[in-house]
Structure formats: C-alpha cells, structure tokens
Amino acid sequence: MGKYKQHDVAIKMFVNPEKIDDKEFRKEISIMSLVREPNLILTCYGGSTKKGNKFIVTELMEGSVFEVLHDKGVEIDEHIRLIMAISIAKSVEFLHSCNLIHRDLKSLNLLVNKHFEIKICDFGLSRIIDKHAPMTGNVGTVCWIAPEIYNNKKLYSEKADVYSYGIILWELLMREMPFGDTETFTIPVLVTKGKRPKIPKHTAKEWSKLIEKCWHQKPEKRPDFPQILVTLDAMWAAFHHKNPQLSKPVAFELSKEGQNFKLNTIDEAAALAKHYPAHAIWGPPSHQEKKKKT
C-alpha cells in the first residue's frame, strides 16, 4: 500500500522479480494501461520494469471476491449476489469487447469495493482473441480452468472465460472452494469427464440453469456475456418485483473514460510499451504527445 497523487494505491511487488519474463511483464502493464474502464477494470497508475525491481501500481480495493466470500462475517443475500454477478459479467463483457480473453478468471482475480462493485485484475495470462492462432495450453488456475484447455485444444475461445464465470457463480451461491474436497491433481480428469461442483437441489431454478449453461462441457453451447447479462437483468427484474423496497444495483454503464478498442495482434499490447521509458509505463501517450514525437 502507498500513496500516489494523494490517493491510496496498491503496489503489487514480486518475490522473485528476476524470474519474471520481461516481455510478459510489459504486456501485463500495457494491457492494464490500455483497457481503461474505471467502473469495470482495475485502474493501473504505472509500473517499473527495472531489473530486480518490478512492480505495478494500481488503485486500492477492499479485497478479492474470494476473501469476501470466505469471510462469514460478511452477509451476502440474493440482492448482493445479483449485484456481484452483474458487475463481474459486465467487466468480462467489456474485456471481450476489447478482443481480449482473460484466461485466468477466478474469484481471486476479482477485486471488490465496499459497495460490492467488482473490477478485474491480473492480466498476466491475457491473450488477444484470435480464432486462427494457437493458444498456450494449460493456463489458469486448476479449479476454474475450462475442459477444452485441459484437453489441449489450442484453438479455444473467449468461451473459456464463460466456463470460469460459471464456477464463480457457483462460488457466489455456495461461498465454498470449488472442488474443495477433491485432490488437486484429480480435478483436470474430473472436469474433462464432465464433473462439476454440486449445485444443491433447493437452488433457485434461474441460478442453477445459468450456472449449468456457463460451465457446459461444449464451449459452443455456452452463452456469451451479452446473453448472460440479458439473463441476469431478467433475474434482477423478477427479484426487484418481489422486493421493491431494495435499491437497484449500480447501472454498470461505461464511464466517459472508457475506451472500447480492439487489439488485433497478439503482440500489439506489448509493442505499445516502446512508447515509454525503459523503466516505467504510465499509460498510452496522448494524441498531443504523439504529434510532438512526429
């Protein structure tokens, strides 16, 4: 934790910075700097690529969704659960609109503020969506990885993020670790065979149906995030009809600072780092700065 221009900020330090690949590190900072949507994506203020002293400076949040869900002192009812589900879906929808797949979507990489609004962080494994370029196999964190990745299908798509979102919806429902009673090394085998965490029988039909659609074994059978948000909006409308006294969740519209761009090549984000000094990246140069350079 630190201060930047009178704001409290988080400083992501690395235990063994010398082991971090410079190109991948630059790519993460570049993506965080480019994907600017302060209502949905964790704001990156900068970072250092100095040898042996790598760090990233971001806005400070209350904690991760994982921490909140596992803190029994935090009350999460259906109202809050819907707010969180909508917030996460809107964030990933924006990321996909920028032609990016997160590839490591999990409750630990979703940060939450005191209003239960959620922002995505940790873009170290993100990739440009390219239906013709092979992806790296077996990336992500074991409990949230889609079956097609375990099957080494290297032409997987953004639907891998949808699978991970299905697991996160289950977490919002259960407040438990996915596959919590299962040995880690057996999870890939179970997932590729179609096994999933158990959904209790008393679960509301709309929740169980959405979860099952999102973690469907076949990627093409999974909804995309615009479709997921249509379902969530209907769930919210039904809930609010029964509970009109509760305020509606924040309208997760894009802010004026939002940039809806698309990266077209895998190395495009990393290449943008060339605009910056070798030791630091503070966001893409303005149009005025570009004119000065030319």
From TrEMBL:
SUPFAM superfamilies hit by this protein: Protein kinase-like (PK-like)
Protein kinase domain location: 1-237
Record keywords, A-Z: ATP-binding, Kinase, Nucleotide-binding, Transferase
Molecular functions per Gene Ontology: ATP binding; protein serine/threonine kinase activity
Matching InterPro entries: Kinase-like_dom_sf, Prot_kinase_dom, Ser-Thr/Tyr_kinase_cat_dom, Ser/Thr_kinase_AS, Ser/Thr_Kinases-Pseudokinases
Coiled-coil annotated residue ranges, if any: none
PROSITE patterns: PROTEIN_KINASE_DOM, PROTEIN_KINASE_ST
Keyword NADP: no
Protein name: Protein kinase domain-containing protein
Species, as recorded: Arcella intermedia
